[in-house]
Design goal:
- By secondary structure, the chain is α/β, with parallel strands linked by helices.
- The chain is built from 14 helices and 14 strands.
- The strands form three sheets. A seven-stranded mixed β-sheet has the order 4-10-9-8-7-5-6, sandwiched between helices.
- A hairpin with a 2-residue loop joins strand 1 and strand 2.
- Helix 4 packs parallel to helix 11, helix 5 packs parallel to helix 6 and helix 12 packs parallel to helix 14.
- The structure holds pyridoxal-5'-phosphate (PLP).
Amino acid sequence: MTSLDAFAESKLAQLEQQALRRALTMTTRTDGAIIRRGGRQFISFSCNDYLGLSLHPQVKAAAIAAIETYGTGAGASRLVTGDHPLLIELEARLAKLKHAEAARVFGSGYLTNLGVIPALAGEGDLILADALSHACIFGGSRLSPATLLTFRHNDAGHAAEILKAERGKYRNALLVTETVFSMDGDRAPLSALAEICAARDTWLMTDDAHGLGVLEASDVRAPLQMGTLSKVLGSYGGYLCASRPVVDLMTSRARTLVYSTGLPPAAAAAAIAALDIIAADPALCARPLAKARAFTQRLGLPEAQSPIVPLVLGGAEAALEASKLLQDEGFLVIAIRPPTVPEGSARLRFAFSAAHDDADVARLADVVAARLDIRAQA
Ligand SMILES: *Cc1c(COP(=O)(O)O)cnc(C)c1O
């Protein structure tokens, strides 16, 4: 065996032993929340396509039309020859939606955070992030020479204490949080964070990957609002909405924008069509949260704050075991393990969609009540 393969094998053995090895499973989804894998059919509660828009006829037609007209790829970085009219239209739409002066789209949400954060925070600056922030917020922060500190999850008081003690040591400061936490489903105290940031000349950046289109937008308008086109919009890509000068700075300095190929025209067309549907159908947008609330109510859990409901089980093995039990009942609910979530907080993560039948949600809750130990959650 080569030393390279020996290295990979030993790492894998270690992961296997901790129940942390991950594997890919071929899965297809052609109809709402129904997915097929391994010759079986499941109702999926693990998909972030909360409104089912990736399969919406209008969204698919828009993507197909864009391909017919413009082909499949952007051909180059937007700064070279990849700046497509559909991207410009999409950015205008996103900026308007977020009440911002301008927007810039990126290759993905992950690439947005990897590009934006180091373009804003450098040597001598402070990045203060919620401790449970998404991996790409930490990934972007690590690409910057700025000092990275974290505050306790959703604890605005702790963030204030840290800024009080530390802010003076740094030139600029950036505070980053998710609006809706991807693995916990809870919502950030945005007004309190905005106040703290205003008091200490700190720039507030929000990651709205799981909020757009499924929750009422907060009144708080952070000066830096990023998100993804890949979840509720059913497409692919990421965005930053901000002031004109900030967006212009990204065009020159965000490396994941400058050195990466522009989004395919079909991704932009699909996202625009999805934004049209969201604007026209508030009843559709309200359904995922209503279903999550029906689920938490039936189980006597704290009321869902978003379409994401976690069931923390502790060990990675317990989470995998629980996921298997639900699969036996026809439900796909993926186990989320470290390092996606902190050690000892492996969980099932239920994501509710407009495509779910109320009867299926009720049956899922009854199966969870009958087969899993949920006492720790209440
Ligand atoms: C999914 C997610 C991202 C990454 O977005 P992609 O478009 O999937 O790369 C960023 N932040 C949060 C909070 C997410 O949940």
